[in-house]
Specification:
- This protein has one helix and eleven strands, in the order αβββββββββββ.
- The protein has a single domain, classed as Porin (Beta Barrel), CATH 2.40.160.20.
- The strands form two sheets. The protein has an eight-stranded antiparallel beta barrel. The chain has a two-stranded antiparallel ribbon with strand order 7-8.
- It is mostly beta strands.
- The chain is elongated and about 50 Å long.
- Homodimer.
- GO terms for molecular function: hydrolase activity.
Amino acid sequence: MFSIQKMGASLGVAATLLAGQACAADNGWADSAAFEFGTGAKVRMARVAVQKNWDVRWFASHGRHLGGYWDLSAAYWRGTAYRNVPGQHQNLAVVGITPVLRYARDDKLGWYGEAGIGANLFSELYNNDDNRLSTAFQFGDHVGIGYVLPNKWDLGLKFQHYSNGSIKRPNSGANFLILSARYAF
């Protein structure tokens, strides 16, 4: 099992790597980092992530194109109704990788829309507020909108759904509304 202490240590290592990455962004393994906060039915989530742009332009037309990026994340979930008991807490660590498609302007500023489906690994089985996920492996899909400012900040809002795709039951899923702040190196 992945403990909360290990999760804290992992986030510390991620922060150190991000600091080093900022110094070598031109040839590094990531071009941006994001901090996100999400809320769902009796559960909250905090997540840090790094992204690597694909630097492709598909369907380019009228100053816009379809591109994308890889998103590697580490999250902490805190449920407040463990095993459907109000006030009982469940703490989870979640790591994931997601390929994301983004439709944006060619200069990558202004409004965008995006969608992604990725793979996630949970530290234990989720069981909160009558929502149960019976496998530690979960798909995480999201749709979102956002705005990229000229100062390299990207502010976004997304809806995210976690499910194992009915690999095993029960599979009631977990949903989040997420606010994201991302900074490009």
